[in-house]
């Protein structure tokens, strides 16, 4: 029997339709503006796929849920058709719930050895969970928030159910994904900033190789990251400043180099030696002044495939111009890349945006001596906000 | 260190069993036929690759039986030493004639052709450009080469063009573009005309794995080259005798230069024994049938068209297939598995393909048509789909 945690943030997504970019700290305002709950219905859609799998399709569903009372979990499980023997309430919440309820629940899930935490919410909820669970516990999110930059979310509730079913059957590996969030307070003051808060693990399909009748499992995400790293090491030139972006693929590059690379920050390497750790824009500009040649290596981060402009504000227009856009290398594992339609950039600089548009595409290193090519899309934060009804 | 040298065998197998990931072999009692007996149950076979039902053709069986009396049961050696018999040469001659190419070569299997030839065609300083959904044997062949690799988006030839343009920055000695002909999950077909145009612009070699297209695509089943009127323009047309031809074995067709190069260099060809004479005789008979009895090929396509049309009219989603591989896309993995089980109970053998093998919302039953199925068989199969589909509220 698998023990899975289940928690729903009942207020997630309420800000979207009433023009708020999230409900962090402004839930009363959202309700006043006429916001209606959305997350319960989305969580139910996911649960109903599981119940149908068991009841109508006779699929085994060896899951015991640990959850929260009421509309944060138990009521939804009950409504979907799980019996009270199939779940245990580990945390009782009051009528008005807060992020502390999510955190307390997840701490309890961990105490009860939950193998997977399934939550329903947005970037804020993902962050709350990430703050309390250990880095090894996989997390998967049913998308219901206004902001969903983090990589833990399924495309829709039904796809999360498929992930859970495949995970139960042992058909999925794990991969590291970014937890990202818009700084909402800064945003309401007119400042746009998406921060990278951490790296969580989520169930993930390893590469699969098509064969005549079935698929054969290929190398895992971790092995592929090592391959990428090995190739990058071969490509590295002497006396060149390498600026390594954030995320787990580039951390693996750091491991292969034998340096203590930060996971969330930007680091600088010359001749395989770390010369700047978690550097800011000023330090980057100083280093760029010292070296004739430089290369920036980045990986798409978060759910939308951004290589610049999300979670790496240190890579400012001045920094990118100094490096030169032809000296940007992009790396990504094939499975990740398959889910990345285009590489997105948001530089906040019209000259650079034009230069990226003209460049049209980037070479992406996806393995040892292996490349792909992906179009680059220039995205301007505010414009995209309006276009996509707040989900950006 | 004191090791237990073999304990992992059982442990790893047990892990697979516990996770329900081990292969459970389904045993056919008797031949692979349009109506087969699988584990005691008579079923309409919709998951074999025996598209033209040639494995049961009397000429193939007769040819295989008779040659044992004159040539024995085995070939005795690898082709390069003493294992090339007259029948092997006859097959290759007939194959080149049928494929309308200068020459042809038979490998032990399709896998042996890909994994043996690809790494010889390109080496360090060269580039292989491969469709992201190519078959596992191509991927293994590519991995055996020291060449650089580039992957293009599935059937996205503007992405292929970008890759070629990017590749030109590196001054590669040779470039090889490689693709499946028919992609076996969706039944979609590579646009060889687009690939050949791009390849000609860049001086790249073209290689197509036409395993599911040999005997199926093109006039009388001559394959993907004939399908696009590109005979002689694709540098390597690779295929197999194990699917529509109804036997076993890999094949390549192309120029005399290609064949001379291939058999002198492919380690798989050089280091495994040649086919026993009864396999070669059945291969030859299959080619002759394709040339002289077009009715099997016509029947396959008539069956395919009818089956797809009827499934669609019942409300099933049959995807983008252009071939006798018809996916019945149901979305949820549980529904696909349940549909496969119910179909089997109703006398139809077709397997589910689910996430993570296909996208999360694209779980399906994959069906493969057979020319030996009668109208009555097809209607039985369709009735089973309708009954089970309604029970599961798919249609």
Question: Your description of this structure?
Answer:
The complex is a heterodimer of chains A (392) and B (395). Chain A is 34% helix and 25% strand. Chain A has 14 helices and 18 strands. In chain A, a hairpin with a 4-residue loop joins strand 8 and strand 9. In chain A, helix 4 packs across helix 5 and helix 8 packs across helix 9. By secondary structure, chain B is of the alpha/beta class. Chain B is built from 14 helices and 13 strands. In chain B, strand 7, helix 8 and strand 8 form a beta-alpha-beta unit. In chain B, helix 3 runs parallel beside helix 11, helix 6 packs parallel to helix 7 and helix 12 packs parallel to helix 14. Chains A and B meet through helix 2, helix 6, strand 8, strand 17 and strand 18 of A and helix 5, strand 5, helix 6 and helix 13 of B.
Radius of gyration of chain B from CA coordinates: 22 Å
Strand proportion of chain B:
15-25%
Low-pLDDT segments of chain B: none
- What portion of residues of chain B is helical? 40-55%
Supply the CATH architecture of the largest domain in chain A: 3-Layer(aba) Sandwich
- The first-level CATH class name of the largest domain in chain A: Alpha Beta
What is the H/E string of chain B? Answer: HEEHHEHEHEHEHEHEEHHHHEHEEEH
Largest sheet report of chain B: 7 strands, mixed
- Separation of the first and last Cα atoms of chain B: 62 Å
Largest interface: A-B, 46 and 47 residues
Oligomer: heterodimer
Instruction: Trace the largest sheet of chain A across and list its strands.
Output: 12-11-10-13-15-17-18-16-14
Percent helix range of chain A: 25-40%
Class computed from helices, strands and strand pairing of chain A: alpha/beta
Q: What is the name of the CATH architecture of the largest domain in chain B?
A: 3-Layer(aba) Sandwich
